[in-house]
Amino acid sequence: MQLVFATHNQNKLLEVQAILPQSIKLLSLNDINCHEDIAETANTIEGNAQLKAEYVFKTYNLPCFADDTGLFVNSLNGEPGVYSARYAGQQKDAQANINKLLKNLNNTKDRSAYFKTVIAFKTENDNKLFTGICKGQITKTPSGSAGFGYDPIFKPLGYTQTFAELDPQTKNQISHRGQALQKFIDYLI
Description:
Elements: E1 2-5, H1 10-19, E2 25-27, H2 45-60, E3 64-73, E4 80-81, H3 94-104, E5 112-122, E6 127-138, E7 154-156, H4 168-174, H5 176-188
Parallel strand pairs: 1-2, 1-3
Antiparallel strand pairs: 3-4, 3-5, 5-6, 6-7
């Protein structure tokens, strides 16, 4: 089986390739010569995932899945949420996003948060969503060098390490993206 993963994010691509069975050949947007930045204009992560999957399917007529992920911090009324990648501006700078979030949480006792990933799968006969959620806490300082995005400041419940400190195999088993992908794989197989 061959599927397009609607992303230009190399980190996401590698993470997903590590989880998917070898029987699924993964193509990136670059592999299909899709170099445009697909607009994420929905006000939910579900909507953004669907926009990307539908765009690729309609434009290239290839089976496709897309994901969108948000970090939702309870004491900030769900911020950064759907704007997680652009929290500190349109440049999608992960370090700037982390800095802004830590500043906004300065002197806040409730640091509970959760990551939510939604995968939208689009083919001629399918239009399905798969969701994964990982609850945890925002740390006061970044720690670890693995992963990407907010991983250095997110400590999943039941763990003493941030996502950026965990080995990739452990992270993929417990993460929001790993959970959503497992549901997707179960559906495909």
